[in-house]
């Protein structure tokens, strides 16, 4: 692990060193996620961004691919059986908590 230092300017901006940008494939068009934890923050490159306008299209594609997956009487019976098993398991957990 190589430690590289960067100092913020008057506006609080920092420069990501070239070696890190190259290794993580960070370009001027890249989006970055910053997560604050404890006494520091982490910066992660995001290489795929889905804009709100694209969400409806992706949702439609997923619906088309899964169309009919849960239809039919056999699936309905299986769904009822699984639901009953989950309800019984939850009930047992609650009884143990008492």
Taken from the alpha-carbon principal axes, the silhouette is elongated
Class derived from helix and strand content: alpha+beta
- The residue ranges in which pLDDT falls below 50 over 5 or more consecutive positions are none
CATH architecture of the largest domain: Ribbon
What does this structure look like?
The chain is of the alpha+beta class and about 100 residues long. It folds into 2 domains: about 1-45, Pemi-like Protein 1, Chain: D; about 50-95. Helices cover about 45% and strands about 15% of the residues. The chain contains 3 helices and 2 strands; from the N terminus they run αββαα. It has helices spanning about 20-25, 50-65, 75-95; strands at about 30-35, 40-45. A two-stranded antiparallel sheet has the order 1-2. β1 (about 30-35) and β2 form a beta hairpin. The chain starts with 17 loop residues before the first helix and ends with a helix. About 0% of the residues are buried. The mean pLDDT is about 80.
Write the layout of secondary structure elements.
Elements: H1 18-23, E1 31-37, E2 40-46, H2 52-66, H3 73-97
Antiparallel strand pairs: 1-2
Summarize the structure.
The protein has helices at 18-23, 52-66, 73-97; strands spanning 31-37, 40-46.
């Amino acid at each position: 692990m190589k430690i590289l230092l960067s100092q913020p300017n008057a506006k609080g901006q920092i420069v990501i060193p070239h070696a890190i940008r190259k290794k993580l494939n960070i370009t001027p068009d890249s989006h970055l996620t910053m997560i604050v934890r404890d006494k520091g923050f982490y910066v992660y490159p995001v290489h795929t961004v889905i804009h709100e306008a694209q969400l409806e299209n992706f949702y439609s594609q997923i619906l088309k691919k899964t169309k009919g997956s849960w239809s039919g009487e056999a699936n309905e019976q299986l769904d009822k059986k699984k639901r009953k098993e989950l309800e019984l398991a939850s009930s047992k957990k609650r009884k143990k908590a008492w």
